[in-house]
């Protein structure tokens, strides 16, 4: 079974880029443009890892993270932010985020972090 990654970002281009990268790496990917979609995917598909943007209109990343943890307390989340908001990054880490990336990020760094946090099952 493929490991599942949920990509949550309101920027279409970033979702497409990450989606393409991780599908090529052999993961099953899901995309959400907002918190409502993200929570629906977490509920229905139980992703192994979530790449979560902090700056999303409506429900922000912190709120999405809090609600995901209610649905799935063990969910693994890597946060992404375009801003140097250290308090938000710290709050996300306090809520259980594994690590964070500042945008624009190096795709190889994200790939390495994903590999580290969900090593692929070998058959």
TrEMBL record:
Organism superkingdom: Bacteria
PROSITE patterns listed in its UniProt record: RESPONSE_REGULATORY
Keywords: Phosphoprotein
Modified residues annotated as 4-aspartylphosphate in this record: 53
Biological processes, Gene Ontology terms: phosphorelay signal transduction system
InterPro entries: Bact_response_regulator, CheY-like_superfamily, Sig_transdc_resp-reg_receiver
Keyword flag Phosphoprotein: yes
Keyword Phosphoprotein among UniProt keywords: yes
Domain Response regulatory: from-to ranges: 4-118
Name of the protein: Two-component system response regulator (Stage 0 sporulation protein F)
UniProt source species: Neobacillus bataviensis
